[in-house]
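Bump. Still looking for TM2 domain-containing protein C-alpha coordinates.
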Amino acid sequence: MSGQGSGGNVLAAICSFFIAGLGQLVQGRILAAIVFFLLTWVNYTLAATGILFFMALPGFIFHVWAIIDAAKYKG
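Sorry for the wait, here they are.
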Protein backbone atom coordinates (compact mmCIF):
# COMPACT_ATOMS: atom_id res chain seq x y z
CA MET A 1 0.00 0.00 0.00
CA SER A 2 1.05 3.58 -0.52
CA GLY A 3 1.44 6.26 2.11
CA GLN A 4 -1.05 8.15 4.22
CA GLY A 5 -4.03 9.49 2.33
CA SER A 6 -3.76 6.90 -0.41
CA GLY A 7 -6.76 5.05 -1.75
CA GLY A 8 -5.61 1.93 0.09
CA ASN A 9 -5.69 3.70 3.43
CA VAL A 10 -9.13 5.14 2.72
CA LEU A 11 -10.39 1.67 1.86
CA ALA A 12 -8.80 0.27 5.03
CA ALA A 13 -10.42 2.99 7.16
CA ILE A 14 -13.82 2.21 5.62
CA CYS A 15 -13.29 -1.50 6.34
CA SER A 16 -12.41 -0.69 9.96
CA PHE A 17 -15.55 1.42 10.23
CA PHE A 18 -17.69 -1.68 9.69
CA ILE A 19 -15.55 -4.22 11.56
CA ALA A 20 -12.76 -3.02 13.84
CA GLY A 21 -9.46 -4.55 12.74
CA LEU A 22 -10.57 -5.37 9.21
CA GLY A 23 -8.69 -2.38 7.83
CA GLN A 24 -5.50 -3.53 9.48
CA LEU A 25 -6.08 -6.98 8.01
CA VAL A 26 -6.49 -5.46 4.54
CA GLN A 27 -3.15 -3.71 5.06
CA GLY A 28 -1.51 -7.01 6.00
CA ARG A 29 -1.02 -6.20 9.70
CA ILE A 30 -2.41 -9.39 11.22
CA LEU A 31 -1.38 -8.81 14.85
CA ALA A 32 -2.81 -5.27 14.89
CA ALA A 33 -6.02 -6.59 13.30
CA ILE A 34 -6.45 -9.25 15.99
CA VAL A 35 -5.73 -6.79 18.82
CA PHE A 36 -8.16 -4.13 17.56
CA PHE A 37 -10.85 -6.72 16.86
CA LEU A 38 -10.58 -8.29 20.30
CA LEU A 39 -10.34 -5.01 22.22
CA THR A 40 -13.36 -3.55 20.47
CA TRP A 41 -15.66 -6.53 20.38
CA VAL A 42 -14.93 -7.75 23.90
CA ASN A 43 -15.95 -4.32 25.19
CA TYR A 44 -19.06 -4.24 22.98
CA THR A 45 -20.02 -7.74 24.11
CA LEU A 46 -19.65 -6.81 27.76
CA ALA A 47 -21.78 -3.72 27.14
CA ALA A 48 -24.44 -5.85 25.45
CA THR A 49 -24.91 -7.88 28.64
CA GLY A 50 -26.54 -4.85 30.20
CA ILE A 51 -24.71 -5.28 33.47
CA LEU A 52 -21.50 -3.69 32.20
CA PHE A 53 -23.20 -1.13 29.93
CA PHE A 54 -20.44 1.40 30.59
CA MET A 55 -18.02 -0.78 28.58
CA ALA A 56 -19.56 0.61 25.41
CA LEU A 57 -17.47 3.78 25.80
CA PRO A 58 -14.07 2.01 25.77
CA GLY A 59 -15.35 -0.14 22.90
CA PHE A 60 -16.26 2.96 20.93
CA ILE A 61 -12.87 4.53 21.68
CA PHE A 62 -11.03 1.41 20.47
CA HIS A 63 -13.23 1.30 17.37
CA VAL A 64 -12.43 4.92 16.46
CA TRP A 65 -8.76 4.25 17.20
CA ALA A 66 -8.81 1.32 14.75
CA ILE A 67 -10.31 3.55 12.04
CA ILE A 68 -7.75 6.31 12.59
CA ASP A 69 -4.88 3.80 12.76
CA ALA A 70 -5.91 2.29 9.42
CA ALA A 71 -6.21 5.73 7.83
CA LYS A 72 -2.81 6.97 9.04
CA TYR A 73 -0.74 3.84 8.41
CA LYS A 74 2.44 4.66 6.47
CA GLY A 75 3.71 1.13 5.88
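The chain is about 70% helix and 0% strand.

Edit: fixed formatting.
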